[in-house]
Design brief:
The complex is a heterotetramer, with 2 copies of chain A (392 residues) and 2 copies of chain B (391 residues). Chain A is of the alpha+beta class and 392 residues long. Chain A has 3 domains: 113 residues, Butyryl-Coa Dehydrogenase, subunit A, domain 1 (Orthogonal Bundle); 109 residues, Butyryl-CoA Dehydrogenase, subunit A, domain 2 (Beta Barrel); 149 residues, Up-down Bundle (Butyryl-CoA Dehydrogenase, subunit A, domain 3), CATH 1.20.140.10. In chain A, the strands form 2 sheets. In chain A, strands 1, 2, 3, 4, 5, 6, 7 and 8 form an 8-stranded mixed sheet that branches. Classes of the chains: A alpha+beta (392), B alpha+beta (391).
Chain lengths: 392, 391, 392, 391
């Protein structure tokens, strides 16, 4: 066991921290208030190279998913500045990584050149069906044509709808009803006239992700738009990585709330004592509880990331579920308590706590939600003995 | 012991329930989104006679404060539909009750007539005390000038600032520090010269209450709009009534979330199971927890009201404090569980859960905040007093 | 709504309170330590008439189940002195009430004379099966003989095994496999040689209830030992009343813990401040949380009792479940926090908190357990609209 | 970053796991019920070489304190079988480590030989300070008399009182108030005249630790049994090691309860469903919660150990405190959930859940208690320090 934190890519974590503090944090409230895509912050990320992080090194990237601990800590630092921006960066970086993983050399090179040129890639899997399981039919279907593929369907919760440059469409290709054989990823330029945005994203949190619906009508893509084989998106090295990033992003909201609450408690004085409220034991107790929850969640995330990097994706499925659960619940608890510590300012829009509190609620609900995480963990335990790293 | 509804006011509770569903809930989303004062609701509640409920019967009211448990239940039911409206309804109902209680017969008749004419009364009391101990100090002062008074000062969290027809100011006569001698209620029409609104209310919840700050600069109030004796506003049969109602209002946000999510869970089906998600054990268990907590908290609120009505506010003080804690924590817990059950729709502004959740969170913070409530309850015990009576 | 607490039988509540404080409380630790039936305390209860409370008035009782609010408050007061004693008193009084409810005039009179003479009646329903539902076959069977009935079977969790004077045996009578038609109550003297006590009650709490197993071999009872018709014990006016009493009993452990913690906090001083710890805000906060939980649970119990008395047993099923849940959870929370307030003495056997804490755990588990209570409540909600008293 | 088991000590962790299951668990119920010192366990652990693990390698040990994360994991695993044994093992392992660290070569060799001979060392430090601020004040004093010292005093919570072979006394030299100059460790055989045991340890948990009070009346200790320099026992590389281990020990009670109840739930079936109750969603969800909390808390403990080992105790202080809170609260939560899942067997003395539950409750109270831990963690933050390092 060696918990020293000096990963290969610690330079990126430091840069993420600085960028979050100086550039992203000041804009976070505005994106939330206006419910718009964090364009300026994303431009900063592009300029600083953060949208190329998961490309292979020989294609101009840092291959950051090879070092998952650094990957999650970069996200976590970005999220401390702006949860929305961090979430979208994760979406872009995760799907870029998957496409590169699945693509041919030619596809990889083409994708990398787009990403290096500052193009943003989105990933659309959700449908308005009612199952969280991947064992049902998708409405979105692609069929082979002479030149390539023709896609039709409808997607919901499409982050960066109308803002990304390319949409990665999760769809069933061909006639095989078994999604495990037919689920495919097709990359399409966002300006295809067959995409119509249905502006129904009106959440009370994570508003900057502009996760509208998209109607897909006769979108034509060439043959090299298909990445990997049918069923590849269900590979165990693909989906869990999304969840790992969510954990880091949502914990960022909690970490930012704790920072703010501590700073506030050290400044705020009440009469007649005229002492900072940070000197009161009940306030200290609350701060302590928040701190322990934050540390515990960070360790769970780092452990899951380390497992992913060291023991492979299948071994990491449960640790990732556990990390997502711990992080989302910790962020919910911390933002709750931060508001209690702050009192009135906790509910005022002039201060960040109410926003962070809302964002933490989104963390509880975003798949895999807390119930689902518990379920995955429990099923693993019940079906057999498991030994996770750090539990001897 | 009788846990049943008071037959004298059973009709009001039933009507409140109906209004919440048919009148308040449909507009609540918009008031919240647009951050608008719920004017249409007040007009409708006035038409239905609800804005006059706390006036004495001889002035055309129902004397609803004679049974605070029923009063709280009416508030709770209204709040199931719209927390903002219930809160403002409570402010107006309490202050017109107080004006008729403390005022001369002439004043009581005059203000009651205004209420029946649809006029809205706001009550402004908060100042920037920043005291841990909650001792009230008034910066707002009045001085005599001929047969009227000149008021200067500043108030915070003034519900219905810019929206009410009359502002009732809690104001201290100059040259007398002792609030128990110098504090009076001043009633002034909203269009009196000298009122200025500082629109700094920018909360993530309860935005429809328009609780901005107000500045009074040489506001003139004639002598016959000064109500009661010195110190009356902090009489134990006056002051606690304001705080008492918050419990019912905020618990109502929990009740609204509960109703919505139970309905949702009974209708929502997932493939491939195709049964209502309410039948999944983790969800049915959560529904059970919510319902039991809701009932327990409502009983705490009603008990506090019953004590206040039968034994006076002093005897009810501990119970009011405990009810505030139970109601606010329960409402917050329920709205949080409801969001988890609903998943995506829990976060969407098109659905009311996120609104109830934000409103409930405000209940935790509104003074006395829930940590403070616990400390007060514990302090009472530690000092060897019973706190809330064992009824 | 009228929450004034002046029930017809408030004299009994006052006497219970005095008896609990003066006679029962000083002995409670001893019964727990020695794991023995609270004989001396029960003798006090008998002498003071508490074992006759639920008999009809014309048979020398107070018909206390006609005034359920008083009934639960008597139990609660007794339990504040000794949880074990209160539990057994409830067992005796509840079964006496049921037998009187089901019996003929002659049976009632005979039973009443036994009870007035100080005899203790026990009630044995549990079997070592594995279902909490009453829809399965019992192992304990009775069959009609010429003179009466012959009983065979085995029971578990038999409170007062070897200590009560009469055992009420829940069994299936005759051949009908449907328990809803065949479940019957047979009253048998405890000294019948067919009863063999299997001393396996070795719980870490509620040790004074001596709830051993009992083997029943060819116990013969006369014809008038049968109370009511087959299936009567499942009537809705029977079983839920047990649960209501449990709620009051277990909340007693919480109430006693709060009383002790408050008294301790007012006395205990720490250096260098030399102030009672009750003056510290973190301690006050804990006491406050305990107090609110206690009050809430008491109101839920009183509401359930009132519903039982006013709206009848079917309307009371859900309020009783809710009260049992609230009371057991409140007692668990209060005893937890009491130990935290007390620190070291909280875990010492010289003080009552560790015992009360154990007893509260038994409250969580005793049927209907918390999960079951939530289940009953949830099913009622899901199956239709319900309106309970006090919720308008 | 490496969350894997340290290969140098992987064998010890595996063996600890096996001993817990095969050796400690079968006897744990009896030690608890009979309130007996776990003598057979100590004999077996000695035979297996476990009682010497924290001695340096050149004295026949494994220098296990060189990697406190591994040390904590060994403790945790042992505690899964028997909390009492793990606690006493920790006391002995820590004090013999400290004696070899602070002692002269002659002393280190001599005490190590005793350990290899199966002698048990106890460490007695607690006095009746009753201080909120945890400042240590020693009533136990020594005065010189020729070439030896005479010790008088009284200690509380003396683990293994009457059971160990050597008592290591934390003792102050007279005429010097400053503990950083006057505090020494005195090693005395248990049969030295002047020891008297006041059997007042009567706890509902951890009864096998025999943590009675001890009175010292003119106990004579020769000069060569006084270890280290003045103040050594409170050196930052000594004192925190004792407190650090408590987290692992108490969390082990949670781990033991978790293992038992998961096994139970996988085998227990109810009619008419006839499937393991572990498959019922409310129960599987609870199992998931327990497992996740257990892992998180163990990581907190291991992190604290890793910090202590690599950056020193001062850097680890915040993390040790946070780990104590996380471990104790988690163990208490798990044992409580386990009892609820098991139902009746959860309460029965024939099954271990109630024992784990009582032991875990002791963890909440053992200083620093969990409320204190939170206040310390918050105070550190409030003072602008990071507390536990972000590793």
């Amino acid at each position: 066991m060696d918990l020293s934190f000096n990963p290969k890519n610690s330079d990126l974590i430091e840069r993420a921290k600085a960028l979050a503090k100086d550039a992203l944090a000041p804009r976070a409230a505005g994106y939330d208030r206006e419910g718009r895509f964090p364009r300026e912050s994303f431009d900063d990320l592009i300029r600083e190279g953060f949208t190329c992080l998961t490309l292979p090194e020989d294609l101009g990237g840092r291959d950051l998913f090879a070092d998952p601990v650094s990957y999650v800590m970069v996200l976590h630092e970005i999220a401390k500045g702006c949860t929305n921006t961090a979430m979208l960066l994760h979406m872009h970086n995760a799907i870029t990584h998957f496409l590169v993983t699945l693509g041919t050399q030619a596809q990889k090179e083409r994708l990398a050149s787009l990403v290096r040129a500052g193009k943003i890639i989105a990933s659309y899997g959700g449908e308005s069906g009612t199952s969280s399981q991947w064992n049902r039919q998708l409405d979105t279907r692609a069929k082979r044509t002479g030149e390539g593929y023709l896609i039709n369907g409808e997607k919901v919760f499409c982050s960066m709808a109308g803002e990304a440059d390319y949409y990665t469409v999760w769809c069933q290709l061909g006639e095989d009803p078994d999604v495990r054989k037919s689920l495919s990823l097709l990359l399409a330029p966002a300006d295809d006239p067959g995409f119509t945005i249905n502006k129904k994203w009106n959440a009370y949190a994570m508003r900057g992700t502009v996760s509208h619906g998209i109607l897909i009508e006769n979108v034509k893509v060439p043959a090299d738009a298909l990445f990997g084989e049918g069923g590849d998106p269900l590979r165990p090295d693909i989906i869990p990585k999304f969840g790992l990033g969510y954990a880091a992003v949502y914990l960022g909201a909690g970490a930012a709330a704790l920072d703010w609450a501590v700073a506030y408690a050290r400044k705020r004085k009440l009469k007649p004592d005229n002492l900072p409220i940070a000197t009161y034991q009940p306030i200290q107790r609350q701060l302590g509880e928040m701190k322990v929850a934050l540390e515990q969640a960070l360790l769970m995330i780092q452990r899951a990331a380390w497992t992913l990097g060291t023991c492979g994706p299948e071994a990491a499925v449960q640790p990732i579920s556990a990390a997502k659960y711990t992080a989302a619940e910790a962020s919910a608890l911390i933002t709750d308590k931060a508001i209690k510590v702050a009192g009135g300012p906790g509910m005022m829009r002039d201060y960040p706590l109410e926003r962070l509190h809302r964002e933490a609620r989104a963390g509880l609900v975003m798949p895999p939600n807390s119930e689902k995480c518990l379920d995955i963990t429990a099923k693993t335990i019940i079906s057999g003995d498991i030994t996770w790293a750090g539990t001897s | 012991m009788d846990f049943g509804v008071n037959p004298k006011y059973g009709d009001l509770i039933e009507r409140a329930k109906r209004y919440a569903k048919d009148m308040l809930a449909p507009r609540a989303q918009e008031y919240d989104r647009e951050e608008k004062f719920p004017r249409e609701n007040f007009a409708d509640l006035h038409r239905e006679g609800f804005t006059a409920l706390t006036l004495p019967e001889h002035l055309g009211g129902r004397d609803l404060y004679s049974d605070p448990a029923s009063y709280a239940t009416v508030l709770y039911e209204l709040s199931n539909g719209c927390t903002n409206t219930a809160m403002l309804f409570h402010m107006q109902s309490s202050i017109i009750h107080v004006l008729s209680l403390l005022g001369t017969e002439e004043q009581a008749v005059r203000y009651a007539r205004a209420v029946h004419d649809g006029k809205i009364f706001a009550s402004h009391a908060s100042e920037n005390t920043s005291s841990l101990h909650g001792k009230m100090v008034m910066d707002t002062h009045a001085r005599r000038a001929g047969d009227q008074y000149i008021v200067n000062g500043r108030k915070y969290f003034c519900s219905m600032a810019g929206e009410a027809d009359y502002y009732v100011l809690w104001c201290q006569m100059e040259d007398e520090e002792d609030l128990s001698k110098s504090l009076y209620l001043f009633v002034a029409p909203a269009d009196a010269p000298g009122f200025r609104i500082d629109r700094e209310w920018n909360s993530f919840a309860m935005q429809g209450t328009a609780s901005h700050s107000m500045i009074y600069e040489d506001v003139e109030v004639p002598e016959n709009d000064i109500v009661g004796e010195g110190g009356d506003p902090i009489r134990p049969d006056v002051l606690p009534k304001f705080g008492f109602g918050y419990s019912a209002v905020y618990l109502g946000a929990g009740g609204g979330a509960y109703d919505w999510v139970v309905d949702y869970a009974k209708n929502r089906r997932l493939q491939p199971d195709n049964v209502p998600i309410a039948t999944y054990p983790p969800i049915s268990r959560a529904i059970g927890e919510m319902k039991i907590a809701l009932d327990g908290a409502l009983l705490m609120v009603q008990r506090a009201g019953w004590l206040m009505g039968t034994r006076g506010a002093a005897a009810a003080y501990g119970a009011i404090n405990e009810a505030k804690y139970a109601a606010a924590e329960t409402a917050a817990m329920i709205t949080e569980k409801a969001i988890k059950i609903a998943g995506g729709p829990g976060l969407m502004r098109d659905f009311p859960l996120q609104r109830f959740h934000r409103d409930a969170r405000a209940g935790l913070i509104m003074p006395p905040n829930t940590e403070k409530c616990l400390e007060l309850a514990g302090k009472t015990l530690a000092e060897g007093k019973a706190g809330a009576l064992m009824t």
